[in-house]
Amino acid sequence: MAQSQSVLSLLTSPTVLPFFLLAVIYAVLKVLDRTDIPKIKNLPEIPGIPILGNLHQLGLNHAKVAQEWSKKYGPVFQVRMGNRRIIFANTFDSVKNLWITNQSALISRPMLHTFHTVVSSSEGFTIGTSPWDESCKVRRKAAATALNRPAVQSYMPIIDYEATKSLKEMLLDSTDGEVDLDPNAYFTRYALSTSLTLNYGIKIEGNVEDGMLKEITHVERIVSNFRSTSNNWADYVPLLRLKPGGTAKPQEYRKRRAVYMHKLLNMLKERIANGTDQPCISGNVLKDPEAKLTDDEVMSIGLTMVSAGLDTVPGNLIMCIAYLSSPHGQDIQKRALAEINKVYPNNDAWERCLHEEKVPYLTALVKETLRFWSVIPICLPRTNTKPIKWGDAVIPAGTSFYMNAYAAHYDDTHFKSPYDFNPDRYVADDSVDDAAASRGTPHYGYGAGSRMCIGSHLANRELYTAFLRLITAFEVLPPKDKKDEAIMDAMECNQYPTSLTLDPKPFKVGLRVRDRAVVDRWIQESEERTKHL
Ligand code: HEM
């Protein structure tokens, strides 16, 4: 006791105290400054500062800043985001090497504080946010089977119904081209209602003002921001988690999400009990005595289905429509219509597109949209379960990897004139210089490798059908008022550049119906075909 008192008085004596305090501060800084993975040898590192690392330098637009850094530091480099070491890959070939050549090692996902600990504390994780384990494997397999090519073909009546509903509403709301429209809400409903019908057999019955549509869209958008790799500094700097009230917003949105997720599942369970349910993915799992999925796993598939296509499908659709309204977009529409008419001279494309994808230029338009607009500029993060070699560097297991899909999509060593919107780059025609892009991996819009998007067949069919029907029904024109014009740049058009998925700034387009009588007939035929839904 006497000894510890004398140590205390020595430490607090005026000559020793300043040095003691400095030593304490140094020790605390050393602890706070530690990273999950030590500096990796033989891999360029972006110079940063203690504790924050490079977090502050990455600013509001990580994809752009990292793209700039890659010009000086090379395609792959390490950064420190607070206490995490992250590998950024920024070119087409470096992504291919890490994500595809090393796909068995790069199979897991890191956990981030805001999303995994706060937002997901009750309803669990989606498939796309789950680290790789037995449960993730089972859920991914169940969802992938329900979203494979033949399964998606059987869902085409739903896409027929939803595409018709949205285009009909746009036709009426634009009063035959007099009123310019923001296409966002129409295609958000298209994507969400399709996913809900597939998963729960429940569709959004109302128009674009529907309450459930608005609530799910708003909550999922905010939740997507909590998933963002750049939005939440508390994910990287643990000290910030102590900030009073810091988790209030994530918790509020967790609760709001829980309300509709449980409501949807309970509605389905009730319908199964009454024998009034429609065939659907969660229903199949709930009714299958062989299915070995727990209630939490069924909830996880539901969460995945609700959220996965909600920003991504409409983001691509509406930004392509934005482009079509531009002066160059007028030429693209003319070319697309000519190609459609060539394949379908009898005016039956509206119906035939449900069974086949026979217009290569439209398939190319879908691919170019996914590349050009890069709606997930920094792909969902990965972590490696085994060491990965990059040049002379060995990246240890457990390191986080961020794919800069935006930079890879605008990599001029892979794409000719990447800043031009040019569907022809994906038309398999040898006269086009980078037609090679149409073979192999065309783009990273759906990610790459072992945890690539499993909804890509569904999304491709949703995009192809909507584009074909839109272009055959309407001329997409610039808005009458210049201030309503969309911004034709994948980064500048984003109202929240820190969000995980592109959140387009509002804009409007004009829609002039090509032939009202023909479009009315197509709508009527679709409504007749899908009246059982
Ligand atoms: C145009 C629309 C879509 C885009 C651009 C898109 C994009 C992506 C991307 C970039 C990833 C991460 C892949 C990776 O890490 O390599 C992903 C994962 C995923 N997507 Fe999509 N997606 C779309 C639509 C959908 C739809 C409609 C569904 C299902 C209804 C879906 C289900 C999933 C799932 C389950 C994962 C996680 C896969 C895993 O972690 O193993 N996606 N998506």
Automatic annotation (TrEMBL):
Binding site residues for heme: C453
Keywords: Heme, Iron, Membrane, Metal-binding, Monooxygenase, Oxidoreductase, Transmembrane, Transmembrane helix
Listed GO MF terms: heme binding; iron ion binding; monooxygenase activity; oxidoreductase activity, acting on paired donors, with incorporation or reduction of molecular oxygen
Cofactor: heme
Superkingdom of the organism of origin: Eukaryota
Keyword Metal-binding: yes
Pathway the protein takes part in: Aromatic compound metabolism; phenylacetate degradation
InterPro entries: Cyt_P450, Cyt_P450_E_grp-I, Cyt_P450_sf, Cytochrome_P450_fung
Coiled coil (UniProt feature): none
Keyword Lipoprotein part of the UniProt annotation: no
Transmembrane regions listed in the UniProt entry: 7-29
Stated family: Belongs to the cytochrome P450 family.
Record protein name field: Phenylacetate 2-hydroxylase
Native organism: Oleoguttula mirabilis
